[in-house]
């Protein structure tokens, strides 16, 4: 039997942006970034009201189609509860359609808000593994979702059982301790890109040689991120998705090449068009930042992001 939550409950969430793939770790490796969306949810007598400030304002739906609302509704169903109505307020800092995990953050934010609501009734909420599973079901892959849930760097994976309509897909992840000497420099353009569209550029099959190359680099990247940042250049090489996306994102490809030519381990952030540089230096070379290829991007150091935070009735700072 579904329990109806009372009116007057409030919950708030802070959820981080994320960068996925990190070069060779396609749909597997992810990294939370210190840029946060905030979600505030209040239960009311009836209806649905959605307010959006910041990124996406005037562009995203203010209905049940909003990803935060969908995340809330999915979390409520999972816990066997419901609300008579709700007001959802979104304060967005994560740019949309730049490869920084805005959609994963929205879904995780909605799911986590449910935890803040049910905590006021002394009911258990969604576990970390449930948050990763449910958010990844929206995404179809767990790298961004897992980073948004766990914070820091993550390795994620997918397991399938059954076939056809009976197929069950399980998403899971484990956190990594990012080496303290690694500095993160996201480069964010005004240009937008659709992940669904850029995925269509990827071939259905790859050669054994290219697969072997990426397996070795992804394994090496785990070592570089945690213990040996001096290996980042070799560890961030990729053959499976970045070259294929270059023609559709020429400015990103050009800036990525410029960074790597200067010895800076740089990769597309997710499907792009944002680029992220990982460096043991405290700042990027001036000749890189002043180059023509850098003009389309806003580049600034950003700390690694924290795990999703939720609270009851209090706004959680990022």
TrEMBL record:
Predominant place of localization: cytoplasm
User: SUPFAM superfamilies annotated for this entry?
Assistant: GHMP Kinase, C-terminal domain, Ribosomal protein S5 domain 2-like
Give every GHMP kinase C-terminal domain span: 233-288
Q: What is this protein called?
A: Homoserine kinase
Instruction: Provide the species name.
Output: Mycolicibacter kumamotonensis
Q: Which residues form the GHMP kinase N-terminal domain?
A: 67-152
Task: From the UniProt record, report the name of the gene that encodes this protein.
Answer: thrB
* Origin: domain of life: Bacteria
Q: Which NCBIfam families match?
A: thrB
Q: Which HAMAP family does the record match to this protein? A: Homoser_kinase
Enzyme Commission number(s) of this protein:
2.7.1.39
